[in-house]
Amino acid sequence: MNIGDVARRSGLPAKTIRYYEDIGLITPLRSANGYRTFRDSDLHKLAFLGRARALGFSIEDCRNLMTLYEDQSRASADVKRIASDHLEKIDAKLAELQQMRATLANLVSCCAGDNRPDCPILADLATDPEH
Amino acid sequence: MNIGDVARRSGLPAKTIRYYEDIGLITPLRSANGYRTFRDSDLHKLAFLGRARALGFSIEDCRNLMTLYEDQSRASADVKRIASDHLEKIDAKLAELQQMRATLANLVSCCAGDNRPDCPILADLATDPEH
DNA sequence: GATGGTGCTTCCATCTACTGGAAGGTCAAG
DNA sequence: CTTGACCTTCCAGTAGATGGAAGCACCATC
């Protein structure tokens, strides 16, 4: 299977698939004309990667998760630790974003949004943090 | 005032302040020895930038917000539009993260986390999306 | 066999917002 | 005069792709 077909089937852009090969996440074969040739196992890995990336795992996490996936003697604790760490990061990010959202939504709701210059959003941004 | 003092006062790393000058967000003066010399207006701008960045505005948004801030004949509608657009992006990101979090938390809670290889997290990642 | 269109290849640059580090000049204290 | 804390510039690297150029490969048609 050529990269175009794989891209359609996996939902990943061809560019991304080449990139994943570049960084050693997959190693498709090559046919005589130099084209990449993807096996079912490559497709499978790409699906795994796509799913893990969709859950927000970093590329390095994905690499480790794939290694664990292929290791029949893995301990599920190792997988769980990666996932739990990631969950913590997501929670931290969520808390940060929620804080931003609250402040910003408040400011937006206070701004008239007309053609006059007075603006509570700018006023807030210009606030000296010491006061 | 030298960059070290400004860094302490603004809470921004000196590196970041130099970077902000590099991309034209501030233009401190220079003293005879080549050191940057910051005026109150520079400090004020850096505080504005720090606050805007803390609210998640992109550098380009910050640039536009600063321009509006300095434009006495601005319309608050222009500020509000930037902030509302940003709020929408935050909401989109929040929704995405919450979805990730829900899926991930569920998987983590289902994983025994022991020394056996069976792992619902890996099982989920390996799921063929067509089924 | 020439041509055209699509698909594949590599390589290099670009994006965001910094951050790290090297090499070297400056300044105040002792 | 030396030491140490500052300051300077410049270059490289981070994450995870993405855009684009230049150039083969392949297939269908005329």
UniProtKB/TrEMBL annotation, chains A, B:
SUPFAM superfamilies the UniProt entry points to: Putative DNA-binding domain (SSF46955)
PANTHER family: HEAVY METAL-DEPENDENT TRANSCRIPTIONAL REGULATOR HI_0293-RELATED, REDOX-CYCLING DRUG-SENSING TRANSCRIPTIONAL ACTIVATOR SOXR
Presence of keyword Transmembrane helix: no
Record keywords: Coiled coil, Cytoplasm, DNA-binding, Transcription, Transcription regulation
Pfam family of the protein (one): MerR
GO MF annotation, one: DNA-binding transcription factor activity
GO cellular component, one term: cytoplasm
Protein name: Cu(I)-responsive transcriptional regulator
PROSITE patterns to which the protein is assigned, alphabetical: HTH_MERR_2
Compartments where located: Cytoplasm
TM segment ranges: none
CDD domains registered for this protein in UniProt: HTH_CueR
Coiled coil region boundaries: 80-107
Gene name tied to this protein: cueR
GO biological process: positive regulation of DNA-templated transcription
